[in-house]
């Protein structure tokens, strides 16, 4: 017998939608069947263990990353769309390896909302956040699950987050064909300001650092997620900017998602999510 799957809309007061065709899921929590097949060791992510992570391609090449937040919306970085035509992009959802697209949902983008206060300099991007609307909703499954949003103004200092993506494996190297992951450490504001980037930092940004590990080109827009005590991942950051890739002198800088929870909800009205 199929398990009834409850989908709730992001705002209280909008109707609930019930589906009898999809397995039950919770935001930020990979299905038990996926977790049971985890591979131990290495930098390769266990297949579909981060089922909210998506690849955004341009001309069939890895362009940027993002995260499923509703069945119709992808959370990404503003700079991923500011200077590029989203109509030329394709979103791969439920992807593990670019060498096997069996079962992967392919979508185009019908609209993009970039934060109205997004600004960019030669060094950094500020209010670097965007919502991409898919041309057609996806159905949640074992391999497609939305990420949980943090509480407004929630702090993650000194936590150990994970980044995952198909970006370059080095500043002068090609993009990965398989989903890679890395564990970092979120720095406190004081620790972040101790680096040479301090003059470019804003309270809406967080820093994460680990020797030899970082996001790189192609990972931009992807999620920085933290595992919570309730067994779910929440999105703490969006890969935004940095100097080089894994340069020990500079941490990676991420958009602080908890500063934008209300903004995200306003721009994802009508999208459905798993139950919280």
SSE arrangement:
Layout lengths: L4 E5 L7 E3 L12 H4 L17 E6 L2 E8 L4 E4 L2 H4 L6 E5 L11 E3 L1 E6 L4 E2 L4 E2 L3 E5 L27 E4 L14 E4 L1 E2 L2 H5 L11 E5 L13 E5 L5 E9 L10 E5 L4 H6 L5 E3 L2
Antiparallel strand pairs: 1-2, 1-19, 3-4, 3-6, 4-5, 5-11, 6-7, 8-11, 9-10, 12-13, 12-16, 14-15, 15-18, 16-17, 17-18
Account of the protein in words:
With 276 residues, this protein is mainly β. It has helices at 32-35, 79-82, 189-193, 261-266, and strands at 5-9, 17-19, 53-58, 61-68, 73-76, 89-93, 105-107, 109-114, 119-120, 125-126, 130-134, 162-165, 180-183, 185-186, 205-209, 223-227, 233-241, 252-256, 272-274. It has 2 domains: 51-146 and 260-267, Trypsin-like serine proteases (Thrombin, subunit H, Beta Barrel); 161-258, Thrombin, subunit H (Beta Barrel), CATH 2.40.10. It is 7% helix and 31% strand. The strands form 4 sheets. The chain has a 7-stranded antiparallel sheet. A 7-stranded antiparallel sheet has the order 13-12-16-17-18-15-14, with no helix packed on it. A 3-stranded antiparallel sheet has the order 2-1-19, with no helix packed on it. Residues 1-19 form the signal peptide. One of its GO terms (molecular function) is serine-type endopeptidase activity. Keywords: Disulfide bond, Hydrolase, Protease, Serine protease, Signal. This is Serine protease like protein.
């Amino acid at each position: 017998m199929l398990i009834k799957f409850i989908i709730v809309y992001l705002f209280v007061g909008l109707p609930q939608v019930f589906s009898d065709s999809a397995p039950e899921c919770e935001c930020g929590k990979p299905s038990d069947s996926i977790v049971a097949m985890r591979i131990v060791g290495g930098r390769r992510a266990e297949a579909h263990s981060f089922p909210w992570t998506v690849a955004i391609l341009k001309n069939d090449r890895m362009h940027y990353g993002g995260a499923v937040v509703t069945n119709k919306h992808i959370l990404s970085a503003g700079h991923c769309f500011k200077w590029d035509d989203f109509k030329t992009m394709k979103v791969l959802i439920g992807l593990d390896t670019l060498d096997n697209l069996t079962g992967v949902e392919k979508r185009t983008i019908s609209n993009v909302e970039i934060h109205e206060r997004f600004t960019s300099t030669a060094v950094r991007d500020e209010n670097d956040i965007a919502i991409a609307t898919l041309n057609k909703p996806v159905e949640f499954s074992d391999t497609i699950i939305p990420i949980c949003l943090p509480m407004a103004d929630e702090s993650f200092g000194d936590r150990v987050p994970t980044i995952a993506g198909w970006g370059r494996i080095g500043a002068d190297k090609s993009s990965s064909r398989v989903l890679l992951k890395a564990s970092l450490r979120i720095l406190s504001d004081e620790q972040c300001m101790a680096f040479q980037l301090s003059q470019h930092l804003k309270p809406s940004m967080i820093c994460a650092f680990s020797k030899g590990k970082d996001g790189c080109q192609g990972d931009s827009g992807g999620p920085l997620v933290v595992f919570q005590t309730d067994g779910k991942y929440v999105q703490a950051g969006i890969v935004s900017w940095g100097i080089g890739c894994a340069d020990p002198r500079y941490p990676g800088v991420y958009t602080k998602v908890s500063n934008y929870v209300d903004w995200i909800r306003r721009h994802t009205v009508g999208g459905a999510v798993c139950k919280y």
